[in-house]
Design a protein that fits this description.
The protein is α+β, with helices and mostly antiparallel strands. The protein folds into two domains: about 1-65, no CATH class; about 80-215, no CATH class. It is about 35% helix and about 20% strand. The protein is built from six helices and ten strands; from the N terminus they run ββββααββααααββββ. A hairpin with a 2-residue loop joins β2 and β3. α3 (about 95-110) packs across α4 (about 115-125) and α5 packs antiparallel against α6. The two termini are about 30 Å apart. The mean pLDDT is about 90.
Length: about 220
């Protein structure tokens, strides 16, 4: 029997523990030590110990498939060495309007349709984006989001802000990655936009303590 990660599920190893993101149920969770050991064996293609498949199928992480599929954690991103956010330019009225519209879009779709739908829509936009970017547009968009942050605190809004900024960047043909990361001890999650080695949505050091669990 072959297995694959269930649609909407991604994970990353943080130390010796795998941390999962389940988009369809909008939750993060960890496995028991026995589940983590079973996952390690699955990564190596070695589901041979009785009970491994039952543990992982029962947790809702994997599903049976006719064709073999590689089960692997989310990869990493380049280390952030700089930030557009620390160098935001004075925004134009047009860029501010784009930022407002896209934040309303992100708030609505995440709240009413859920993160999985938001990811699917954003993925389609990203796939249609071709790089014809102008650095001036990036700076002015970042300046627009910083201006809005003066009215609406950025704290606890990273998901909406990042999805909105991602949508705004696609309007100007900017190539980027949207990243959701996690940390443990204590647990925390953060969402940010990254372009190469530069953060777009945060100060330079904000995302460094998080390990990517989902990368678009």
């Amino acid at each position: 029997m072959a297995y694959k990660l269930r649609s909407g599920v991604s994970y990353v190893w943080v130390g010796s523990a795998p941390v999962f993101l389940d988009l369809y149920h909008n939750r993060y969770f960890k496995l028991s030590p026995s589940g983590a050991a079973a996952l390690r064996r699955l990564e190596r293609g070695q589901i041979a110990i009785p009970g491994d498949a039952e543990i992982l199928l029962g947790s809702g992480l994997i599903s049976a498939t006719e064709y073999p599929s590689i089960v692997t954690p989310t990869g990493n991103m380049p280390a952030i060495t700089g930030s557009y956010f620390d160098q935001g330019r004075r925004p134009s009225l047009g860029h501010v309007m784009v930022a407002v519209i896209d934040q309303l879009w992100a708030l609505a779709i995440i709240r009413w349709a859920g993160p999985a739908a938001a990811v699917a829509k954003l993925e389609r936009r990203i796939q249609r984006t071709h790089s014809h970017e102008r650095h001036d547009d990036i700076g002015r968009l970042v300046g627009s989001y910083r201006l809005i942050d003066l009215l609406l605190s950025a704290e606890n809004r990273c998901l909406v802000r990042s999805f909105a900024l991602a949508r705004s960047l696609t309007r100007y043909s900017v190539v980027f990655n949207l990243v959701i990361g996690v940390r443990t001890g204590p647990f925390g999650a953060h969402c940010w936009i990254q372009k190469g080695e530069r953060s777009v949505s945060d100060h330079r050091d904000k995302a460094r303590e998080y390990v990517p669990v989902l990368i678009l």
